[in-house]
Each structure stands twice: as structure tokens, then as C-alpha cells.
Amino acid sequence: MRVSTLGTFPLQKPHLPEESSKTVTKQPLPEMVSSLRLLTLTSLFSPSFTRRTTVSLRRRLHLRPPLAAGFSVQSAASSPPETEDRLDHKKSSRAQDPANTDRVITPRSQDFNAWYLDVIANAELADYGPVRGTMVIRPYGYAIWEAIQDYLNVKFKETGHSNMYFPQFIPYSFIEKEASHVEGFSPELALVTIGGGKELEEKLVVRPTSETIVNHMFTQWIHSYRDLPLLINQWANVTRWEMRTKPFVRTLEFLWQEGHTAHATPEEAEKEALQMIDVYTEFAYEQAAIPVIAGRKSKVETFAGADKTYTIEAMMGDRKALQAGTSHNLGQNFSRAFGTQVMDTLALSESKSKIRKFTDENGQRQHVWQTSWAISTRFVGGIIMTHGDDSGLMLPPRIAPIQVVIVPIWKKADEKTGVLNAASSVAGTLKTAGLKVKLDDADQRTPGWKFNFWEMKGVPLRIEIGPRDVSSGSVVISRRDVPGKQGKVFGISMEPSILEAYVKDRLDEIQSSLLQRAISFRDSNIVDVSSYEELKEVISLGKWARGPWSASDADELRVKEETGATIRCFPFEQPQGTKTCLMTGNSAKEVAIFAKSY
């Protein structure tokens, strides 16, 4: 089949679920129809893509084998001096793996973007796909996404939603039905124009989002108020033809969940939209340890086709904002776009036409009220950029694919069996307690190399077991979030009940510590402003500006043009008292947060 994009359609990027918001400039529809072109191979392998791939290959050749080149000096230097066997292995690991002392992760403070890409490559989260702008999510990266899925699936079902699946191909005529929707999505659409060697009668859109096809099917299913509310969710892939990409944060294809609901009243739809942004907020705080700010998007930043958009905004380590999840109150925009008038219920059942009205309790025909909401693999990028350090990933225990790694240490052949038996017993104890445990008993790598490797992967706790630990019936435990000796505790008993309780307590401490650290960082980088000059100064320093706002859309666009910052949201939590708009000097009801964003 032939796939083409509307790449020449002269629109700016819209506000999209899980994507940065952009302003939409209206253009006549015929222009985009005439812009269909078949992508050539050369366009898929641009100079920037080739350079990036070369760098990735160079890193891989340098790192694998040995992977130790990807680890920081800090963790190697903090290996424990408490026993002779640990000292010997520390020295031997440096001698056998000289790459251990090389720093191939760019320091965050030096180049945040390079650091981010280094961590993704070295921690084996993802790699570049052969098509420009795509990525291959590797098992460890996908395991983090699975942890997100596991939590949200439970929450969705607790709130009455059912999972289902809609086709990836959508008739182009569906996209055209809602004017602001087609206007917003046209720059990023991928179209199929040939199938089975023949030109298609109607172009097919490769799913950029599913509001249109969901509404088409809702027309077949909703006939009466008794059919409402209709609450569904799907886990799927999405294609948006992005020109500038960044692994996890913005790619041509990504994974997400998208919820779609239909309701009998506007109040029910609003309640649903707010409920789901609350679910996302709870997940961000309690599972990902990311202190997002929840609020309402401005009119300029609202999703194409929605009445209101609610968002959770996260501050990354470089102080840019990441839109980490959105929930949209669609009003009746899509139901009206897909509706035709009928006089009664009988006409509806006989025609089987695309009706978006339902018969209410009074026998009157009404359009339904709808919502949609989504979180994507972008959240994995948010976890990396919120918690990671110069040593690599730092994963919150509740979403870590591996919570505890056990590294056995021996020097002599006659020590190996006893150490491995003890390590296996400890692993069994912790697995029985419901923890995610990895026993790294491979003898091709030194203990020092393993320490660095699992630090790179962000494993929250490391347990070390050597011959003396076996003799004393104890272990050494190191925390990923506290580097060096400060994070290492000796002499923790192997007795199952004691060890289990200790490890669980430490994991809880790490979860809490990462959240508190992120809160402190966020709060120290949000500055209250009362004038436009103050806003510009704060943004120039790379921080977030918070101030009263009641100015026009044109003023909002001026801020974006002059500072590069956008209104991230009007936070739900608002300060009390009178407010004066920082731009106009007029009275303001709310404060807004401005920041540069991904």
C-alpha cells in the first residue's frame, strides 16, 4: 500500500493529546487534498537522521561489548571498602574492564538532550527504527510501559470503563466532518492511497486519534438514554507525521491509551473529564513520583474539537514542561458533526443511518455529550527526564521492572557455591514477598561492572553477598537514589522476615524520596510574576512563570512569539484574593503558568 502525508499543508501543529499545543491557522480544505505525494526513500533518510543513526551505532559499537563503558565513575568509586574480597573485585573489575572508568553519558548539566539520548541508548530502553522518526522500544523500556498499563487498566475498570479496539485505518471523510478537527490534524496525517495494487476510492487515514471512528460506531450503538453512559478505552498505536522527533517524547508512531465516553448531560461529561485527569494525577504522584500540576488549558491550547482540555504538566530536569496527559470535554462537537435529524425512535431503527442523537427520558431527540482522554509512551520519557542522573536511570520502585538486583561476589572457586546458594535463597525470599527481583549470577562480568550496569538501569536497590556475608548470615544493601557510602548499609540479616521488612521499607523510602526531591525542584523553579517584563525575565532564566491572566488570545500568542513560552495551564489550585492581569492591568480571576515545553 502507498502511504503519503499532507506534508505541504501550511498549518502549524495543533494542540493534540499527549503533544505540545500549537496555534492553528485556517486554510482552505482543497489545498491539502492536492498535496498528496508518495514519500521517497531519500526523504526517509535525511542528513539529520543519518547523523543520529551513526552516533547511535558508534555508541553501540563502543558499549556492546563491553557495556561498562556506559557507566559513571561515581558508582565505581563508591564500591564498599569493608571487606577484602570487595576491595579485590573493585580493583580487578577496573583492570579487566578499563571502560568502567570512561564517561560516555554526557553530564546533564553539560547537554541535557545529549544526556537524555545517552541514557536511552545505554540503559537499553529504545533504539532508532529504520524509518526516520520511529523508534524500537526495547524490552526494558517496554516493561516500564507495561507497569503504566497495569496501573491504569485497574483504574479504568474501577471507574466503569471497558477495553475494546477500533481499526487503525479511518476513512478520510470521517476526518473532514469536524471542521476544527481536520484543521488541527491535517499537517500530521499519514494517508493510504493505494491498497492491493489499486488506487483506493477513498483515502484512508492512519489513526492519529480515534474520535471520528469512535463516533461513527457510537451512532450504531446509542439509541436511547438507556444506552448511556457509554464508557470505553483502547490501547493502541498512533501515527502522526512529526518533523522533529525525540525518542518517547515525540515520534512518528507511539503507543497510548485513549478513552472515549458518551453521556446524557453536559454535567456528566464534565464530571467524567475531571475524573480522568484526577486518575492521571494520582498515577503521576503515587506511581511515577512526578509532581504534576493539573489544570485547564487556555482556549488557544485546547484540543482541536474540544470545548475544554484538562492537562497534567510536569517539570523536567531541564525545567521545560512536559504535557504528560490530557482529558477533553468534547461537548457536542463530534456528535453534531456526525448527526442527522430523525423524528422518532422508529425512524432511527429503520434507517440505520449515522445518527448522533438519542431519545431522552422525555422522548426528545438530543445529541450526546462526550469526552476523550489519553496518556502515551511520552510518560516514559517524562520519568527519565524527571529522575535520571549522570549515572543513568533512576526509577521509582512502583514502576521499576526490577526493584532489587542481587550481585553475588566471590574470588575463589570454593566460595562460589556457598555464595550462589545464599544469593538464590535471598532472591526466593523476596520474590515470595511479591517483589520484582533479578539475581545476576553471570560469571562473565565482574561485580564492579554489574554494580555500574544496574545503576545505569535505575534499579532502586542492590543487594551484595560475599563469602563473609554468607558466614555472618547478612547482606549489604545499596540505594540507587543515595550514591556512595551514604546509601550503603551493612549487616542486614538474611532471616526472611527481617530482610523482607527491611527491603520493603527501603523501597517505600525511595519512592517517597524521589517524589519529594522532584517537588522541591519544581517549586524552586516556579516564580510568581506580576508584569510582562517579569515574565520575560523568568522565562529567559529557563524557569516557569506564574501570574494572573485575563488577556486576549492575541496577547497569549504574543507571549509565545516573544518568549517561546506558552500557557501550560490554569491550575486547579488557585490563590485567594484579588488579581490583576500581568499583561493588561485588568482584573483577573485566575493565575496561569507559562513555560517553554517539549
TrEMBL record:
<dbReference type="GO" id="GO:0009553">
    <property type="term" value="P:embryo sac development"/>
</dbReference>
<feature type="region of interest" description="Disordered">
    <location>
        <begin position="72"/>
        <end position="104"/>
    </location>
</feature>
<keyword id="KW-0030">Aminoacyl-tRNA synthetase</keyword>
<keyword id="KW-0067">ATP-binding</keyword>
<feature type="region of interest" description="Disordered">
    <location>
        <begin position="1"/>
        <end position="27"/>
    </location>
</feature>
<dbReference type="GO" id="GO:0009507">
    <property type="term" value="C:chloroplast"/>
</dbReference>
<dbReference type="GO" id="GO:0010109">
    <property type="term" value="P:regulation of photosynthesis"/>
</dbReference>
<dbReference type="InterPro" id="IPR017449">
    <property type="entry name" value="Pro-tRNA_synth_II"/>
</dbReference>
<dbReference type="GO" id="GO:0005737">
    <property type="term" value="C:cytoplasm"/>
</dbReference>
<feature type="domain" description="Aminoacyl-transfer RNA synthetases class-II family profile">
    <location>
        <begin position="132"/>
        <end position="396"/>
    </location>
</feature>
<protein>
    <recommendedName>
        <fullName>proline--tRNA ligase</fullName>
        <ecNumber>6.1.1.15</ecNumber>
    </recommendedName>
</protein>
<dbReference type="Pfam" id="PF00587">
    <property type="entry name" value="tRNA-synt_2b"/>
</dbReference>
<dbReference type="InterPro" id="IPR006195">
    <property type="entry name" value="aa-tRNA-synth_II"/>
</dbReference>
<dbReference type="GO" id="GO:0004827">
    <property type="term" value="F:proline-tRNA ligase activity"/>
</dbReference>
<dbReference type="InterPro" id="IPR004499">
    <property type="entry name" value="Pro-tRNA-ligase_IIa_arc-type"/>
</dbReference>
<feature type="compositionally biased region" description="Polar residues">
    <location>
        <begin position="72"/>
        <end position="81"/>
    </location>
</feature>
<dbReference type="InterPro" id="IPR045864">
    <property type="entry name" value="aa-tRNA-synth_II/BPL/LPL"/>
</dbReference>
<keyword id="KW-0547">Nucleotide-binding</keyword>
<dbReference type="InterPro" id="IPR033721">
    <property type="entry name" value="ProRS_core_arch_euk"/>
</dbReference>
<dbReference type="GO" id="GO:0048316">
    <property type="term" value="P:seed development"/>
</dbReference>
<dbReference type="InterPro" id="IPR004154">
    <property type="entry name" value="Anticodon-bd"/>
</dbReference>
<dbReference type="GO" id="GO:0017101">
    <property type="term" value="C:aminoacyl-tRNA synthetase multienzyme complex"/>
</dbReference>
<dbReference type="GO" id="GO:0048481">
    <property type="term" value="P:plant ovule development"/>
</dbReference>
<dbReference type="GO" id="GO:0006433">
    <property type="term" value="P:prolyl-tRNA aminoacylation"/>
</dbReference>
<dbReference type="InterPro" id="IPR002316">
    <property type="entry name" value="Pro-tRNA-ligase_IIa"/>
</dbReference>
<dbReference type="GO" id="GO:0005524">
    <property type="term" value="F:ATP binding"/>
</dbReference>
<dbReference type="InterPro" id="IPR036621">
    <property type="entry name" value="Anticodon-bd_dom_sf"/>
</dbReference>
<dbReference type="Pfam" id="PF03129">
    <property type="entry name" value="HGTP_anticodon"/>
</dbReference>
<dbReference type="Pfam" id="PF09180">
    <property type="entry name" value="ProRS-C_1"/>
</dbReference>
<keyword id="KW-0436">Ligase</keyword>
<dbReference type="InterPro" id="IPR016061">
    <property type="entry name" value="Pro-tRNA_ligase_II_C"/>
</dbReference>
<dbReference type="GO" id="GO:0005739">
    <property type="term" value="C:mitochondrion"/>
</dbReference>
<dbReference type="InterPro" id="IPR002314">
    <property type="entry name" value="aa-tRNA-synt_IIb"/>
</dbReference>
